[in-house]
Design goal:
385 residues; alpha/beta; TIM Barrel; 8 strands; 45% helix; globular; binds zinc ion
């Protein structure tokens, strides 16, 4: 078990911001001006703004019509879908008790904790995935324990979804790089548990996902047309580096994972997999143009349709990346159809992402609707209202 000093690595990701969205479009602004009941500050304003976003094209109707549409948009019926939302199964917390901080907030997590936060943030459904800081390397030693932890995690998550299928979904986990164990868990998670997809990590110890050892796993996931949510991790190459906080390694590992999947030919070999990456792509987002320009010509046969083609198929969430810099850069790479709402709750709180999203002026009302819900409905048809 190789895991470094967690204090140094910190919790998970990066940074915060403020309100706007009404400045996002004339249509939305005209609705707000014509509606004297428009909240002007705080949570009620955020809620109203989110309703506007969910109303999407409806917000472009004349003021009286738009207000009718907004009135129909309630939290419980048409809220956002959060694809980056973590769970901490009690059995996993117990198994990792000696490795995680005694003060780790997720020690006291329960579905009720998430539901309370989701209700306040106008989130209808969250797709649950493992917490990287809790799981660490526990899935990766090819042991029976690793297989058992993956199974317990997935059984627990599936029960949460069975209890509230309208409010939760499940990204099941796999004991990578144990290929035989992972293949068995794929079948169990999809056929028995009816998982919505898989929550994987951008690296497992010293291996990025394009490593040849993972090829049978990705081929099976492609055959099953799986949705894969890749959460950042710390590769063994880059743990405890002197003089660095370690914080940016999550974002850099995301870029490396995509590079690895690209160079290995996994992206082009598995066209039916839906790949989701977090935090608007992390470092990938600014590196993508260079990756396109400088992809080694001697490996061109691994990317027959071209690098840009493969990048445009990827999905990205907004967690901790609602600022203009990452979102504008992301929009240069993919269309809005590939952007999904994500929050990183309960590691982080909703306002960390939401305050910045509300200040972001780069999406039209219809695009907000797609980001908040529509794009995720395409990936998870069972959530279609
Ligand atoms: Zn996260």
């Amino acid at each position: 078990m190789v895991w470094p000093n967690t204090q140094k690595l910190g919790t998970e990701d990066c940074e915060p911001m403020r309100d706007r969205i009404l400045a996002n479009g004339d249509a939305a602004a005209s609705v707000s001006h014509s509606n004297s009941a428009t909240p002007t500050s705080g949570a009620s304003r955020r809620e109203f703004l989110t309703s506007l976003a969910v109303a999407g094209a409806g917000a472009m109707l004349p003021a009286s019509g738009a207000i009718t549409v907004i009135a129909q948009v309630t939290r419980s019926t048409r809220g956002r879908i959060d694809v980056h939302h973590h769970m901490a199964p009690p059995s996993y917390v117990k198994a990792m008790d000696r490795e995680i901080a005694p003060t780790a907030a997720y020690r006291n997590w329960s579905p009720a904790v998430s539901l309370e936060k989701m209700d306040k943030a106008n989130v209808a459904t969250s797709i649950l995935s493992p917490i990287q800081g809790l799981v660490r390397d526990s899935l990766s030693d090819r042991s029976e324990r690793a297989r058992s932890l993956a199974r317990q995690n997935n059984d627990y998550g599936a029960q949460v979804v069975r209890d509230r299928p309208d409010r939760f979904g499940l990204f099941a986990t796999l004991p990578m790089p144990d290929v035989e164990g992972s293949l068995k868990e794929i079948a169990y998670a999809l056929d028995t548990l009816k998982a919505d997809g898989f929550g994987l990590f951008t690296s497992y110890l010293d291996k990025w996902p394009g490593d040849p050892v993972f090829a049978p796993v990705f081929d099976e996931l492609n055959r099953r047309r799986a949705v894969l949510f890749f959460h950042p991790a710390h590769h063994t190459c880059c743990r405890d580096m002197a003089g660095l906080t370690g914080t940016i390694e999550f974002d850099i590992d995301t870029a490396r994972a995509i590079d690895s999947l690209l160079l290995s030919g996994t992206l082009s070999r598995c066209p039916d997999v839906k790949f989701i990456f977090t935090h608007a792509g992390g470092a990938f987002t600014t590196l993508a143009p260079r990756m396109i320009d400088d992809f080694p010509k001697r490996f061109a046969d691994r990317v027959p349709r071209g690098v840009e083609y493969e990048f445009k198929k990827l999905y990205f969430d907004t967690a901790h990346a609602g600022a203009a810099a990452p979102l504008d850069a992301l929009k240069d790479i993919v269309s809005t159809s590939q952007v999904l709402y994500g929050s990183d709750v309960p590691i982080r709180e909703y306002p960390l992402t939401d305050d910045k999203l509300e200040a972001y002026g780069g999406f039209s009302p219809a695009e907000w609707q797609a980001v908040n819900r529509g794009n995720a409905e395409r990936l998870f048809p069972r959530l279609k209202a």
